[in-house]
Write a structure and sequence with these properties.
alpha/beta
Length: 350
């Protein structure tokens, strides 16, 4: 696994828009403020050509132009680390215009984003053997003040931190809007982690005295994107899992548009494709669409498949679309230590 160099003091951060750009409010004002903030901290910033563009469908520009921007930013010498402007809907369409063989030979740079950015992070890890960060997008760095999770993401890029911990509260409904573009996360809901083994609940927030530890090579992202990649030429999962079978795979998964039935179908599809052959455990973020359907809830949507492997399954983690999110290095070897209602994730670059 290739790990990029840490972002150094005075280094240059590049921003690109392989998914949505920051052309509308509140994202534009938040992104502009983020640039000011980075510069006030002593960093240089460089923008890809699509950052303020809204010409594409579900992405900032045409797939060809978005793919060209990715190649330019990753292979050029100007930027030391890269952050995606935002998520979106159809980033998958740019992939045929990205030369992953060339990216696998280029000097690795940290790339950070989440949601639709799974379409780039996942192939970087599985096809290019290059680690990337599943974390906040560019506009999030414009909030005032930074939530601790945003600072965690910054310190992960700079190498100041390789261990992150869960946060006590999460945001059910954002207050950020056109009038308040710099609004920080509105955290009101208490963290409530659950852990299962073989389909049986083995830990919950009330059991402070119990603990669980699991280690494996981290892989995953947004399930909406992952099942879309499955079976395409951009799916290097089975060979990746075989290569790192001695480490075992710790799957990090979360969902955006998928409802609980769709999550269950996605789990079945990934299982049938052989993705879980060397699984050591599952880490699931809070589902954005968690309402039960026909008696199926978000937990059973996952456990119907995950329980078969008799490995730890930790649910409702700070991963994904219900902020805040722990920034995690996909491709790294992680040790997850769950104790009561608190989790600590240590990342090793090996």
């Amino acid at each position: 696994m290739r790990y990029p160099e840490d972002l150094k003091d005075g280094g240059t951060i590049g921003f690109l828009a392989p998914s949505f750009g920051c052309n509308i409010e509140p994202y534009r004002s938040a992104f502009d403020h983020a640039l000011d903030k980075w510069q006030s901290m002593g960093y240089e910033t460089v923008l890809g050509p699509n950052c303020y563009v809204g010409e594409g469908i579900g992405i900032s520009n045409t797939p060809e132009k978005c793919g060209a921007e990715v190649m330019e930013m990753f292979c050029g010498q100007e930027a030391d680390a890269l952050i995606s402007c935002g998520g979106g809907e159809l980033m998958c369409e740019i992939l045929e215009h990205v030369d992953f063989a060339r990216l696998a030979q280029a000097r690795p740079k940290w790339f950070m984003g989440y949601s639709d950015n799974t379409n780039l992070i996942y192939p970087l890890v599985t096809l290019c053997d290059t680690a990337a960060i599943y974390g906040p997008c560019g506009a999030a760095f414009g909030m005032e003040p930074w939530h601790v999770s945003v600072r965690d993401a910054y310190e992960l890029m700079t190498g100041e931190k390789r261990t992150v911990e869960s946060y006590p509260l999460w945001e059910r409904e954002s207050l950020r809007n056109e009038e308040n573009p710099l609004q920080p996360y509105y955290v009101t809901e208490p963290l409530a982690l659950k852990a299962y083994l073989g389909g049986k609940l083995i830990m919950n927030p009330e059991e402070e005295g119990t603990e669980l530890r699991v280690t494996g090579r981290l892989l995953g992202g947004c399930m909406d994107c992952l099942v879309n990649l499955l079976g395409t030429k951009f799916d290097g999962t089975t060979s990746f899992c075989e290569k790192y079978r001695e480490d075992g795979i710790l799957w990090m998964l979360e969902a955006c548009d998928l409802n609980v039935m769709s999550i269950r179908r996605a789990m079945w599809q990934m299982e049938q494709a052989g993705w879980f052959r060397h699984v050591k455990g599952f880490l699931f973020g809070r589902a954005l669409n968690s309402e039960p359907v026909m008696g199926l809830d978000a937990y059973q949507a996952v456990l119907a498949v995950a329980a078969k492997y008799h490995v730890p399954v930790i649910m409702d983690l700070d991963i994904g679309h219900l902020s805040p999110m722990m920034p995690l290095v996909v491709g790294s070897v992680v040790t997850v230590h769950l104790r009561g209602n608190h989790v600590k994730v240590k990342m090793e670059y090996c």
